[in-house]
Amino acid sequence: MNIDEKYLFRCIELGKNALGSAAPNPMVGCVIVYNDKIIGEGFTSPFGGPHAEVNAIHSVKDQSLLQKATLYVTLEPCSHYGKTPPCADLIIEKGIPNIVIGLKDPHEKVAGQGIQKLKDAGKNVVYGILEEECREHHKRFLTFIEKKRPYIILKWAETYDGFLAPDPQMRSKNPEPYWITGIPARQLVHKWRAEEQAILVGTKTVLMDNPSLTVRDWKGKNPIRVIIDKDLKLSATAAVFNDDAKVLVLTNKKTTATKANLTYLTLDFSTPLVPQILKALHLQNITSLIVEGGAKTLEQFITEDLWDEARIFTGNTVFKSGIAAPKITGKLMFAQNLETDSLTILYND
After folding, report:
1. 3-class secondary structure, 169
2. Across-strand partners of 70?
3. Along the chain (349 residues), what's the average pLDDT of each consecutive run of 10 residues?
4. Separation CA 218–CA 194 (nearest Å)
5. Catalytic machinery residues
6. Residues 86, 114 contacting (CB under 8 angstroms)
7. Which candidate, 115, 68, 75, places its Cα nearest to that of 94?
8. pTM, 2 dp
9. Dihedral angle at the C-alpha atoms of 28, 34, 40, 42, nearest 10 degrees?
């Protein structure tokens, strides 16, 4: 590992602090180094706040050292005015002579212009360092920009014998929740919800489970709740319609919202639904999405091959009959045991 890679790895670590709060902005990490010592660090503030470079520059106690320093950043500094001024302008203003960048920003408003602006100002700019690692780190943002859709995470829990839910007759006899996994797994799911921008379920999941789809067992921001409700059959008293988070309802009806946190999006349910959903969410500026179910909804994403990760819990519960879990293949990225449960994470290769 060379010195540039060392400091860019630190940038990636820092950037992870912005997971769940920076979106739809990328979760950038930045360090400033003088004489082989980190003198400033920063990561992207919650959306609308300062970018990583600004936070890192402002964290440097002796600002005179900036004129002899190297700034490391996971993504090309912006060169345009958005909610904040261009980071490239601030770097130039502060006289930082050396800039090392992990990844060019593919956003049409940047796309090499930040690098060019820095070079035109006489700065020594190096980019493409740890490019693969930076792409992995920025996978949500890059998917949104390059594929014009959110980064998609499929998530479900299945029993040891391969079921998502028990037979409806079991539910009618005993309507209590049928937990497949234990507390550690459920807490991890709430952590994931806090990290992603939106979460999606179908009509049946709301009718059968009445989920809140919020973050309760973890500290963090509630995701936007996306509900498929073709014929608007769900009750307004369902937990997903409470005031805890924003709600997007996908329907074939034309209707107007009755609450400030509720938006209806009209889709054509006679044609493939998943591409329409992703286009609609892209227009809503949603960069990442957890699909939590049910079986039909998950199968649609798998059939259309529109998914990036699948996070699958397997419990030691046995139902013997019920709603079968989806079948999926992908590249194994991670496997872990959580008490009596196991977690497998696949990437779509």
Report:
1. helix
2. 33, 98
3. 93 97 95 97 93 96 96 92 80 96 88 90 94 97 97 97 84 68 94 97 92 91 97 94 96 87 95 97 97 95 98 93 94 94 96
4. 8
5. 53
6. yes
7. 68
8. 0.93
9. 0
